[in-house]
Every structure is written in C-alpha cells, then in structure tokens.
TrEMBL record:
EC number: 1.14.16.1
Official protein name in the record: phenylalanine 4-monooxygenase
UniProt cofactor(s): Fe(2+)
The entry's keywords: Iron, Metal-binding, Monooxygenase, Oxidoreductase
One protein family per Pfam: Biopterin_H
Biopterin-dependent aromatic amino acid hydroxylase family profile domain boundaries: 109-455
Amino acid sequence: MISRRATCLGIGGINPRRFLASVALGRGEEHKKVLTTPAIGVAFTLHDNPGSLVEALNIFSRRGISLSHVSNRCSPLEPYKAMFHVHFRGGWESKETRDVLEELRRLTLDGQLFKIAAPDVPWFPRHISDLDQFSKSTLDAGDQLESDHPGFTDPEYRARREEIAKIASEYRGADGPVPQIEYTEQEISTWGCIWDKLTKLYPNHACKEHNNALQELTDAGIYGPRRIPQLSELSEFVSARTGFQFRPVTGLLSGRDFLNALAFRVFFSTQYIRHHSAPMYTPEPDVIHELLGHAPMFLNPDFADFTQYIGLASLGASDDVIKKLAACYWFSVEFGLLIDFKGAVKAYGAGVLSSYGELLHATSPTNPDISIKPWDPEEAAHQEYPITTMQPVYFAAKSMEDAKIQMKAYCDRVNRPFHCVYDAESKSVFTDVDVYTRPVGMKYRPVDLSSREPL
C-alpha cells in the first residue's frame, strides 16, 4: 500500500540478543527503565594496547551503567592512539555519570573527554501509539475519487466511501478493537464475485504459505465467499500467531509512514471495496487487495519477520533509503514470487494474489512478456517498475525463509547513524545512541559525528 514473537528484532548490523544483553535487560520494570533511559555518548583516546578498552568499559560496569554502543577509530598518523566512542544509558547531570567520567578521564591518554553530538534524522515513531497521527496524513482522503474511478459518478458509492473513511480517520489505537463495518449486500456480492474467481486459481498459482493461511482463516469463520473479514477479528487471529495487527486507514499513506508502521508489526488496511460495476478492476488498494492479497501471508512467521525488517530499516532513514526499501517492498510483499520444490513459480505478493489477470500473467511458465529474476534485494532496490500496468519484471525467492535472510542482510547494511531494536513487550523502538529527530521534509545540514563538544 505504498504510494504507495514475543522476541526482539534488531536492525543495522547488530545482533539483537547481544544488543539486549549489552544494555543489561531483564524483564519487568528494570527492563523498561534501562531502555527508556537516553543513550548519551562520550569520546576519549586510549593507548592502542590489548586490554585498554576493557579497562575503560569496566568503569561503567562497576557502577551498573548499561552500554548501548561501542565503536573505535584509529588515528591515521598516530598508530599508538585509538579514539573510542561509547554510548551508555544515563544523564549528563547524574552523579553516576559524573563519577564515571571523572574516573574515565584519569585513564585516557590526554585527560580529555568529548560529548558526542546526537545525529539528526527524519522523525520516526518510537511507540505504537505514535502511529495514530498517520491517519491524519494520508495522500488522499479515501472518499476523494479521480475522474477515471468507476465510482466517480455514483453519488451513493461516494457517500459510502465517505462513511467508511470517517470511521478510519477517527480510530485510535487506544480505542480497542477496530469498529466493524456492516457491509451491504452489494458489497458482499462484489467480494463474492472476486473470491470465486481468485480462489479457483490459488491452488495452482499461489504459494502454499498463502493457501494454508487462507484455509485457516476460512475454517475460523473469518473469511468466506459471503464473509468480508473484519479487521478486529483478523487482528486478533493473526496477532496471536505472529504479533501483526491491522489498523484502518482512509487511503494511501506516504511510503515512509507506511513502512514505519511495519516496524511495529502494524499493517494499515483500507476497509472500503471497489465499485460493483467493475469487480475485476480497481485503481487503488481496497479490502480485496488488502485482505485477500496481503493479510493471509502475515500468519507466516518468516513473512512477518521479513516485513518488519523493512519497517525497522525505514525508521529515521533518508529519502533515498526509503525509496530503495519501497522498491524492495514492491518486488516482494506486493509482487513477490516463490519457486516451489518442483521448480514451479508461485505468488506470495498481494498485487499478484489479488488480481486475476496478474496472477496468470506472473506465474505462466510460457509468458514471453516477463522476466523473472532471482530474489536479490540489492538489485530490486534499483529496479524500475510501472504502477498502472502489469509488471514486466518479477523477483522469485527459493523460499520465504531465504527471502527473509536476504532482506535482513540488506537492511543490516542500510546507511544510518544509529541502530534500533523493537521490544515486543512494550511495543516500542529503542536506539543505541541518542538521536535528534526533525520534521520529515525539512532541509538540514547533516551532523558531523566526528565533531565533539569537550566535557
């Protein structure tokens, strides 16, 4: 929809388990206290001798101060010196910090300590509640239709879209379950028409992960030929399996906002359905695209992790990185393919699974109009794609697990001045260094991380 486990996941070249251990995480209140304390940074110079860094870090350890990030840079003209950057949980005015700095100063080569400047990055949500403001920033209002939309001249359809959009715009995460939509007989008939056509293709053209999940959802009574899923029921079912939940949105979000939400295992979904006069066509995502195409795959743990990796990598990322991550999302979550054990091509991307024509187009073994490339996020990030026609290029992975492993490796290489960790218990994201967030879109001069303020 980009303009479109009870574990912690880390991004940015950092092992999440080691990171969490390094900040001395227990569970409960102490766990929350450590993570919510800002990670401030100090730079200092030591002799480049074995054990010199350990001695410095022990100063923090003896006082029970948690470290979040440690790095070093050598002096190019003075090989016996090493500059270390250490970020730790604390405050500059606290007695513990002052005591640590005083002892650390005596250990340094020149008696100098420097405060590390907080990097300047685009604003990003830190807690799941921050996603509430995304409902105010859609690229369209949901009820605003273009002149080529099948429902443009239908006042009844436009009024219905406005009614559904209002429900989505007023919803907040703290409100509890998403309000249910009482779909009309005409809307249910439109859903049923497409359900019948697509589900006949799924056994031979959709991946087994999607087919198995759709069967589970159908057996649970959430899906059916005359049953348009409700986001509240879907969220409860999927969240129990992989932690993903679904929230309503009035229309298209910006690529940044949509990807940011995935970091918190939240998928923003529309609740309206396409116009009944053209059931096989829609110029925009609707419940058929979201709930027949996207939603079942979120029951698969590998797919859920895959998607969250993209989301975490998008937090505080530059516009260029967002563009590349959006392209990776397009060629995977939207139009991704898998190769099954027989070598046949199967669909897992929602743009394929929710379109009768695209599903046949993408998975035909004899289609001369398409190119299917091995899944490679690096290549996908730079691949051009059309948004109004069937795709000429697809990427196929060996398995969902393999696709996830490659995506995580790509996200780990994203150029960003901090690493972040998602804590599923508190539904929060924490950074290993303190960062300054600016309004998205504001021009700024990047902070030089080598510039330091003396302490």
